[in-house]
Amino acid sequence: MKKESMNKFLQSAMTEENPFISTSEVKNWLVKKNNEVNVDVQQIEFSKLDNWEFTPDQSKLVHHTGRFFSIEGINVKTNWREVKEWDQPIINQPEIGYLGIITKEINGILYFLLQAKIEPGNINNVQLSPTLQATKSNYTQAHGGKVPMYLEYFKDNKNPTVLLDQLQSEQGARFLRKRNRNIIIQVDEDIPIADEFVWLTLGQIKKLILQDNLVNMDTRTVISGIPFKIISDIGLYTHMEESIKTSMLISSINKGISMYSFEDLVAWLTDLKCRYDLNVTSIPLNKVRNWTITNSEIINNDQRFFKVIAAKVTISNREVSSWCQPLVKPAQDGIIAFVVKKIHGILHCLVQAKLECGNFDILELAPTVQCLTGDYRHPDYDIPFLDFVLNATPDMIRYDAMQSEEGGRFYHEQNRNMIIEVGDEFPVQLPENYTWMTLNQMNTFITFNNYLNIQSRSLLSAISFI
User: Fold this and answer.
1) What is the rounded distance in angstroms from the CA atom of residue 51 to the CA atom of residue 65?
2) Quick check: 341 and 251 in contact, CB under 8 A?
3) What residues pair up with 420 in beta bridges, in sequence order?
4) Going by C-beta distance under 8 Å and a sequence separation of 6 or more, which residues neighbour residue 234?
5) Long-range CB contacts (< 8 A, 24+ apart) of 191-195?
C-alpha cells in the first residue's frame, strides 16, 4: 500500500465534518430507511423451509442447490484449557465472499460509500453495511435474484485503486474455517449513488460505532484492517490534548516503542500453536452428543450456547424479496473487552491467543475477555480478567456499546463491546497465552490474514482519534 493511501485514511479518520450528511443526521436517515422497508422474519418448522432440507440420513441441513452454506455436526478434540472434547453443530460455508467498500476523494478527503442494509437477524433491521456484502452464491445469482449493486467495481475490469485487500476469518465458534475478502478500493470517476447508499468519512463511521447497533459487523471488520501513518500536516494534531484518543493515535502510528518486538510476538504465538492441538472431525448432525433435532430447532439439551432455527424472511428491498433459511440464535448476550495500559509511555492492548473450533490455524488473537457461547455471568471455569472487566468503574471505561454479530447468519445476536484503561497497578505479568501489543503491532498482524479474530477486529474498529 502506498504511503499516500495511509495518509488519506488517517486524514479521513480525523475528519467528522461532512457537507453531504452530518453524523447526527445519519441516525435519522437510518430510521427513515427502516420505515421505508417492510420486514417480516418468522420462525417456522424445518419441514416448511423452502429450498432447504435435511439429507435423508439427517447428517446435514443443506440448500437444494448445494450452495450458500450448510449446518453440519463436528467432534472437537484438543489439549487446550479445561474442556478437551465436545460435539456441536456448526455452519460450513466454504465460499469466500466479498466485504467491499468503495472510497472516493472529495475535496481532498476520502469518503466511504456505505449502504443502509437489512439482514434477517439484525436486532434493529437497518444497519450501515459495506458497499458490497455478498457471498459467492449471492453474486453468482444462485438465489435467482438480481446481481448485487456495485459488484462490477470489485469483480470486473474497472481498474480501481486497491487500498486494502485481505482474507479475514469469521466467528470461530460458529463457522468452520470461514473467511471473507475484506477489500477497500478507490475510484476517481463519478459513480451513480443509489438511494440506500451514503458517503461518510472514516471519522464519522468510527463515531457511529460508539453507539449501539448502527454499524454492522461486516463494515467493522473491513475498517479494522486500515493502517495509519503520521500525516505531515501537523496542524491536524494541534487541537488534540493528552487523552485516550491521543494515546490511541500514538499507539497506532508508533513503530519504535513496545514491550515486545514484533518478532518476539510471532515466536510466542508460533510456540503456542506448536504445543496445542485442534482436531475437528465431521460427524452426522443427528449424532451430535447433547444436542437434539426437533421440528423447529437444533438445540442443546441444557438450552445453552446457541440453537439453530428455521426462518421465513421477507425484506422488500433485497435482491430476492422473500426466502427461507436457517439462522443461529444465541442463548444469551456475550461480552468482549480489551484492557489497555501504557507501557514505556505507549498504550498497549492485553491480547489473548484463543482456540476456537472453527479457527483456520488453531489459535487467533482475541480480546482480553471474550465470552460469547457460554453465559459469562455463570462461567463453567475461571476466565482470566473477567471479574476485573465486569467490575470496572466508570472512570476506567473508554468504550462501551452493544454491537450485533452478522445478521445474515445470526438471529438477534449482540455482544457488549468494551475498552477499559488501567494504570500501573495492573500487573504486567500474564498467563502464558496472554501478551501486550501496541495497536500498530496488532494492525501489522491483521495484514497477514487469519491472525486477529473478528471480535478483536470489532473492538479495533471502534478506536477513534477525534
Assistant:
1) 8
2) no
3) 339, 397
4) none
5) 191/102, 191/104, 191/150, 191/153, 193/113, 194/149
Single-letter code of the amino acid located at 210: L
Q: CB of 217 within 8 A of CB of 414?
A: no
Q: Give per-residue burial for 178-196: e unless 16+ CB within 10 Å, then b.
A: bbbbbbbbbbeeeeeeeeb
The candidate with the shortest Cα–Cα distance to 390, out of 433, 365, 420, 415, is 420
CB 320 within 8 A of CB 39: no
CA 238 from chain center: how many Å? 33
Which grid coordinates are listed for 38? 417492510
Per-residue pLDDT, averaged over 1-25, amounts to 88
Q: Would you say the pTM of this structure is higher than 0.85? A: yes
**Among 255, 182, 180, CA closest to 224:** 182
Using alpha carbons, list the distances in angstroms from residue 191 to 8, 51, 105, 113, 180.
20, 36, 12, 11, 25
User: What is the full DSSP assignment across 91-129?
Assistant: EE--PPEEEEEEEEEETTEEEEEEEEEE-TT-TTSEEEE
Q: Which grid coordinates belong to 4?
A: 499516500
Q: pLDDT tens digits for 37-81? A: 899 999 999 999 999 999 999 999 999 999 999 999 999 999 998
C-alpha cell at 127: 444497519
In contact, 350 and 368? CB cutoff 8 Å: yes
How do beta strands 109-118 and 197-201 pair?
antiparallel
Query: What secondary structure does DSSP assign to 395-432, as a single string?
Result: GGEEEEEEEE--TTTBSS-EEEEEEEEE-TTS-S---T
Reported as type and span, the H/E element at residue 348 is strand 346-355
